[in-house]
Specification:
alpha+beta; Gamma-B Crystallin, domain 1; 7-stranded antiparallel sheet; 4-stranded antiparallel sheet; 2 helices; 13 strands; 18% helix; disordered N terminus
């Protein structure tokens, strides 16, 4: 039987020009794959479990809380000035202050409050009463958007802006008389005011 032109003594013949041709095709394909990977679409935005894109503020809140929890600090003077008279960590669960997670609480001293890494949706109530009663002065602060740092300059200055809202039930004054504060991420029960609601 005659030998095939592609074989000699039953051994396949080696053709340098064909091997170069196949190598060039393989190299071209490899280069295309590398280029497509390097120049492909950018990473998609983070999504929640329903597949919806998370707002930037929510993404930032989640990342920040993983790194450092929010901190609530109380200050001796209005405008978050003078001495700090208490600070507490907030881990997203209902929190009553003073408590053992913080330090330096001084009763009837705080006139302002500063938040660090405050998440949107956080609600804080500040009371003249040591038991959190509505029978005396109290104020409620609602955080509307994530804030790396936010000063609440007075518990008596009602406010409604892009960062937060504050409503105040006046009886005989709250600044410098704070005995208890509470923080949580859902609505409080009860909003009675035995004094006078200060209008916006």
């Amino acid at each position: 039987m005659p030998m095939s032109p592609e074989t000699a003594h039953g051994v396949p013949m080696f053709h340098p020009h064909e091997e170069n041709h196949h190598m060039n095709r393989r190299m071209g394909l490899l280069c295309f794959m590398v280029f497509a990977t390097a120049c492909g679409p950018e990473s998609e935005p983070a999504a929640n479990r329903t597949g919806e894109e998370l707002p930037a503020s929510e993404m930032k809140t989640q990342v920040s809380q993983l790194a450092d929890p929010p901190v609530i600090t109380f200050w001796e003077n209005n405008g978050c000035q003078a001495d700090q008279v208490g600070w507490y960590l907030y881990n997203g669960t209902p929190t009553i202050m003073p408590n053992s997670s913080g330090s330096g609480w001084s009763n009837d001293e705080a006139r302002s409050l500063m938040l660090f890494r405050a998440p949107a949706g956080m609600i804080i109530r500040v009371y003249d009463s040591g038991s959190g009663s509505h029978g005396d002065d109290w104020a409620e602060i609602r955080i509307k958007q994530y804030a790396d740092q936010l000063c609440i300059p007075s518990f008596e200055d009602v406010m409604d802006n892009a960062a937060y809202s504050l409503r105040f039930c006046h009886y005989n004054g709250l600044d410098g008389k704070v005995s208890q504060a509470r923080a949580q991420n859902y609505e409080f029960n009860g909003s009675t005011c035995n004094g006078t609601w200060i209008p916006w």
